[in-house]
């Protein structure tokens, strides 16, 4: 346990030293490029925040290509400041291209941070889940269709509703008025659209009435 704590403490101390040196080097480069006062201190914070955002994207596993791209950009800015302050660059006479890079860094960092923080993969998954849930209820109306098909064979053939008998009487009377002949069972079945056993039962109810 103590060995693990000692190893963790050593890593934290090493990370703190590296962060402090990189922070100071970025500040010196920004200050030498004409960004004085609080602006020089804002540059190292911007670089470190972009590094953290890119590292978090790499840890989540989503859009790793974008995470690696911005991680390399932020790491290049940090390492470039460390190397430039090692005596390879005259901080008293900074070249124009470095001033342009330093002046344009805030826009680049804002773009990278926005793309890393506001990504769409999770939103797309949520939309797909909602669409799947909306598609499921469409299959529910199949049950009433099956019941409507199966219901007629299950109805008893002999019992006939009184309203249907009254309607059959009107149909039979109209047929007799137009043709002068009684309506047979097949014609009654076709006019009413009922099964043959029910048509015969209706005809049985109509026969005493017509006689």
Topology:
Elements: H1 2-32, H2 38-60, H3 64-88, H4 96-117, H5 121-135, H6 142-154, H7 162-179, H8 185-192, H9 196-210
Helix pairs in contact: 1-2, 1-3, 2-3, 2-4, 3-4, 8-9
Short précis:
With 211 residues, this protein is mainly α. It has nine helices and no strands. α2 packs across α4 (96-117).
Model description:
With 211 residues, this protein is mainly α. Helix content is 81%, strand content 0%. It has 9 helices and no strands. The chain has helices at 2-32, 38-60, 64-88, 96-117, 121-135, 142-154, 162-179, 185-192, 196-210.
Percent of residues in helices:
over 70%
Shape: rod-shaped
Strand content: under 5%
Task: Compute the number of strand runs.
Answer: 0
**Helix run count:** 9
Task: Catalogue the unreliable spans.
Answer: 123-127, 140-157
* Radius of gyration using CA atoms only: 43 Å
Helix/strand structural class: mainly alpha
- Average pLDDT, all residues: 74
The helix/strand series, from N terminus to C terminus, equals HHHHHHHHH
Q: How far is the first residue's CA from the last residue's CA?
A: 109 Å
Largest sheet: none
Q: Could you name the key traits of this structure?
A:
211 residues, mainly alpha, rod-shaped
């Amino acid at each position: 346990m103590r060995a693990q704590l000692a190893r963790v403490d050593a890593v934290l101390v090493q990370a703190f030293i590296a962060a402090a040196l990189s922070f100071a080097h970025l500040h010196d480069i920004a200050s030498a490029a004409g960004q004085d006062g609080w602006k020089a201190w804002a540059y190292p914070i911007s670089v470190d925040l972009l590094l953290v955002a890119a590292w978090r994207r790499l840890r989540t596993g989503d859009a790793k290509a974008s995470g690696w791209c911005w991680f390399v950009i932020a790491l290049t800015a940090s390492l470039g400041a460390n190397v430039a302050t090692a005596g390879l660059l005259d901080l008293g006479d900074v070249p124009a291209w470095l001033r342009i890079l330093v002046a344009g860094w805030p826009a680049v960092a804002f773009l990278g941070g926005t793309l890393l923080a506001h990504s769409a993969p999770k939103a797309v998954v949520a939309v797909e889940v909602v669409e799947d849930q909306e598609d499921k209820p469409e299959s529910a109306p199949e049950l009433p269709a099956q019941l409507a098909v199966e219901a007629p064979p299950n109805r008893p053939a002999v019992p006939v509703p009184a309203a249907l008998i009254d309607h059959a009487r009107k149909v039979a009377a109209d047929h007799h008025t137009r043709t002068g002949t009684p309506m047979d069972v097949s014609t009654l079945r076709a006019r009413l659209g009922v099964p043959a056993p029910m048509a015969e039962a209706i005809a049985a109810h109509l026969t005493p009435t017509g006689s």
